[in-house]
Amino acid sequence: MKRICVYAGSNPGTSPTFTEKAKELGAGIAHRGWELVYGGSNMGLMGSTANAVLEAGGKAIGVMPRGLFRGEMRHSGLTEFYEAENMHGRKAKMAELSDGFIALPGGYGTFEELFEILCWAQLGIHQKPVGILNIDDYYTPLLQLIEQAIFSGFMPATHRDLLLVDQEPDRLLDKMEAYKRPVLSNKWNEED
């Protein structure tokens, strides 16, 4: 493991615990000698994670679409910065640069990034670990939705193991480091 992509909110959220755990995650990434890949903003949980990586002596790599965001401010102190043509290019570059992916709390953009990279894992497009830092049970409703998808026959139970979950940054990073891709049953239950 060399680089971890972190998907996170461009807002800090209502609980100070969100920011505290984002900073712990950033420091943990740097202390392991890994690099951060993320969306390039200096705001919200994105900025908190990047700042913690940099303050701990680590490297932070940002990827942001050219001219797409007026409100999202580019972080000026990053180790490397890439401009992408659009959101598709941003996500592709982040995936290319990264050896694993972690989602912190966030909104639509964070959910979309998480589910796209998780879907790619399910389809075998990549073999990299995908994790959720479930701060203050933020993602518990989403995990319940995944269980509902399994219960309702839209996803095999073995596919839940593609997603690593923990409430503590260091434990999640340990899981990411030890990840072995699970043996998956056939995604399409109408096939033999």
UniProtKB/TrEMBL annotation:
Official protein name in the record: Cytokinin riboside 5'-monophosphate phosphoribohydrolase
Q: Which InterPro entries match?
A: LOG (IPR005269), LOG_fam (IPR031100)
Statement: the UniProt record of this protein carries the keyword Hydrolase: yes
Q: Which domain of life is it from?
A: Bacteria
Which leading EC class covers this enzyme?
hydrolase
A single Pfam family it belongs to is Lysine_decarbox
Source species of the chain: Brevibacillus ruminantium
EC number(s) reported in the record: 3.2.2.n1
**What family is reported?**
Belongs to the LOG family.
Which keywords are on file for this protein?
Cytokinin biosynthesis, Hydrolase
